[in-house]
Each structure stands twice: as structure tokens, then as C-alpha cells.
Design a protein that fits this description.
With about 130 residues, the protein is mainly β. The chain has helices spanning about 5-10, 120-125; strands at about 20-25, 30-35, 45, 50-55, 60-65, 70, 75-80, 85-90, 95-100, 110. It has a single domain, classed as Jelly Rolls (Sandwich).
Length: about 130
């Protein structure tokens, strides 16, 4: 058994969102994701892992190819394996608790508009059929 205090584990950075794995268990892990106002994640998926976010404080919007939904304290979002998603933080600091589980935690990133210097890797381009 392990126990964590999300407030104690949080780490914020004005230049980028911070995700820190707190522990790995079997075929999964748990982490804390910390966001400053306006930060946006890459538009990505986990081909072989389900990802669940629970909003502890703050909030923003989670976007998939089909919809965008508000995220606020007490809400959680489940992304099935392979679902493209992006998190856009709102106007205040946000603390999310994340659980991922699956045979492989790899990530494939389709785009990252808020990071103009980012370029897709050959694996990412091949995964999304962009080669």
C-alpha cells in the first residue's frame, strides 16, 4: 500500500505543465498533473493504455475528436485506449490526479499547437499515417 497527499506532491511551473509519476503498480501508474493558467497539453493518445483524470482543484476543458467537456473540481474523465485527447487549463492553477493502466504506457502525439518548436517523431507520424 502507498499513500500520497496531492497538495504535497504538486509542483507548478509557469513554462510547462508538470506531470510526476507517484507510483507504478502492476500494469499501471498514478501521477499528479499540475497546470498553471492557460497551459495546454499535446493532442495525444495512449494506444495501449486507458487514462483517467480526476480534477482535485482548478479546472479547464478536455477535448477529443468528437467533443469538448468542462473539467472542474470533483469531475473525472476516462479516455479509453487510443482516444486522442488534449487538456486546456482554465484561468487558475489546476491539480489533476491521473491513473493510467494497460500493457504499455507509450504516448503518440498528433500535434501540440501551444508549443511552436515541437515536431512529431517518426513513430508519431507513422502511427497517425502522416508519412
Amino acid at each position: 500500500m502507498k499513500s500520497f497527499n496531492l497538495k504535497t506532491e504538486a509542483g507548478l511551473d509557469a513554462k510547462r505543465h508538470v506531470e510526476r509519476i507517484l507510483g507504478a503498480f502492476g500494469e499501471g501508474d498514478v501521477s499528479v498533473a499540475c497546470w498553471e493558467p492557460g497551459q495546454i497539453s499535446p493532442y495525444h493518445c495512449h494506444p495501449n493504455a486507458t487514462e483517467i483524470y480526476f480534477c482535485f482543484e482548478g479546472g479547464g476543458e478536455m477535448r477529443t475528436p468528437l467533443e469538448a467537456i468542462p473539467v472542474s473540481p470533483g469531475s473525472f474523465v476516462v479516455h479509453p485506449r487510443g482516444e486522442l485527447h488534449e487538456y486546456r487549463n482554465g484561468g487558475e492553477r489546476t491539480l489533476l490526479f491521473r491513473v493510467r493502466y494497460g500493457a504499455d504506457m507509450s504516448v503518440r502525439t498528433k500535434e501540440w499547437p501551444s508549443n511552436p518548436g515541437w515536431r512529431a517523431s517518426p513513430l508519431d507520424r507513422a502511427y497517425f499515417g502522416e508519412d
